[in-house]
Amino acid sequence: MTVKQRAAKAAVLYFVIHMMNEVVCYFMLYRIFRDPAFITMVALLYNCIAFVPQFFWGALRDLMEKFKQGILSVPLLLSGFLIFFVANAEGALFWLSLVLLSTGNAMIHVAGAELTIRTSGGKLTPVAVFVSGGSFGVILGQVLASIDMSFWWIALLCALMMPLVIAGEKLYKNNPRESDECEGFNYVIAGRSAVIVALAVFFIVAVRSYIGYGIPMTWKKTLVESVLFYVFMGIGKALGGFLSDKIGIRKTAFICIIGALPFLVLGDKLMIVSLIGITLFSMTTAVTLGMVISVIKIAPGAAFGVTTVALFAGAIISWFVRSSSLTVNVLILVITSAVCFLLSLYILKPEKEAA
Amino acid sequence: MYPFSFDMIGPGSFAVLGGAIIVVLIFIGAVAVASIAVLVILIRKKKQQNDAEDLRTFRRDPPKA
User: Fold this and answer.
1) Could you tell me the pLDDT band of residue B9, with boundaries at 50, 70 and 90?
2) Closest residue of A to B18, CA-based?
3) By CA distance, what is A61's nearest residue in B?
4) Confidence at residue B12, expressed as pLDDT on a 0 to 100 scale
């Protein structure tokens, strides 16, 4: 099997696994019918355990090759899911089910990142395709939770993830050494400090997460419009990786950071304009991943974890500091985008050098 | 990410949420310390591997004086 074939298989496999994982998680989350304060606690705990420890799980997988997180994640997800639905969990049992579900979610993300990065030969498309699967899963899980569907179907879907995860682990076999050690990831200008690049990526991702909540979208009211929002977000995430590999990461950074701005600002009431902006805006995912993996090549799992911790940080800030004023949101969008763009210019290698 | 807003909850619940946020911060700190410890071990392990590789290369093909 060639590097290209292995990378393509890993990308498709983990696109599907990631989507199934999010369907399971969001089906359960959207079947919790309690008061707003309780839901707030649930969201805080779920997001924290699902996103923050990915840095730790990633580092652990980078250290111990035999630590198969993908295989561990499915029983965790399934047990959390079944405790919630079968035992009709209340009190401590409910929180246990949530911890199991979110830990399984975190581990499946790291397993997918490790496989798609280590088999890609330095290309960003595989990891971007894997990440995009989540957007489709999030909305599908919400839609399925809103209809009168038995949870047993979703439990079956969760169990079906196991053979796919095992197939993913098998893809590691005969992976070339230079690919496994991420030697192809050279997107950062030589001499840039790894700590500064990691901090800059953390900042850019946290900003993306923060302004994601502040994007003016009064058009998004119905379920169909929400579905479109997530679909275009998923397309953007995958497209970011594809474009980075085709035209170069620096040009892609320019297109997605600066190009998205007018569409996001003018798309408050115009769905199509806003969706173009969302697609462009989501493309930054691949760019930031390319940056951080290039400076932490020995630990791609931990590198991926840097971005997920930043996503959580951005969301937390948006929960505390949020403006309902359109002008303020547009100003935040423009200023932070400009800062992110300048950071990208400082970090990313021009296409001529990368070639 | 599972969306929510603090606008959803009443002022009475903020004490409970404040406690939850402190727990979350302690959790984040613990995760950060554990992750950095794992990364330090990983860097040392890679350095030892590289040194061993260099030594093998040196023995196989010593530089000519």
Assistant:
1) low
2) A41
3) B38
4) 61
Q: Can you name the CATH fold of A194-354? A: Growth Hormone; Chain: A; (1.20.1250)
- pTM, two decimals, is 0.89
Interface-testing mutation among B9, B17, B23, B39, with chain A (most A C-beta atoms within 10 A): B39
Contacts of B34 (CB under 8 A, 6+ apart): A56
Residue A108 near residue A18 (C-beta atoms within 8 A): yes
Q: For residue B65, give how far its alpha carbon lies from the nearest alpha carbon of chain A (Å).
A: 32
Angle CA(B38)–CA(A113)–CA(B1) in degrees, nearest 5?
95
B chain contacts of residue A315, beta-carbon cutoff 8 Å: 1
Q: For residue A334, what pLDDT is reported?
A: 85
Which chain B positions have a beta carbon within 8 Å of A214's beta carbon? none
Separation of alpha carbons A96 and B17, rounded Å: 19
Calculate how close chain A gets to B63, using CA atoms only, in Å.
26
Chosen CATH of A3-180 out of 1.20.1250.20, 1.10.10.10, 3.50.50.60, 3.40.50.2000: 1.20.1250.20
ipTM over 0.95: no
Each domain of chain A, given as residue ranges in start order, spans 3-180, 194-354
Domains A3-180 and A194-354 fall in the same CATH topology:
yes
CB contact under 8 A, B17 and A298: no
Residue B2 pLDDT > 70, yes or no?
Answer: no
Q: Which residues of A touch B43 (CB under 8 A)?
A: 298
pLDDT, mean over chain A? 89
Contacts of B45 in chain A (CB under 8 A): 63
**Is the CB of residue B28 less than 8 Å away from at least one CB of chain A?**
yes
Query: Which chain A residues have a beta carbon less than 8 Å from that of B28?
Result: 48, 52, 309
**Ranges in chain A, pLDDT < 70:** 89, 214, 352-355
Tell whether B10 lies on the interface with A, counting CB pairs under 8 A.
yes
Residue B10: predicted pLDDT: 60
Is the Cβ pair B27, A299 closer than 8 Å?
Answer: no
Angle, helices A125-146/A91-118, rounded to nearest 10 degrees: 150
For residue A114, the model assigns a pLDDT of 93
- At B7 the pLDDT is 60
Concatenating the DSSP letter of every residue in A110-163 gives HHHHHHHHHTTTT-SHHHHHHHHHHHHHHHHHHHHHHTT--HHHHHHHHHTHHH
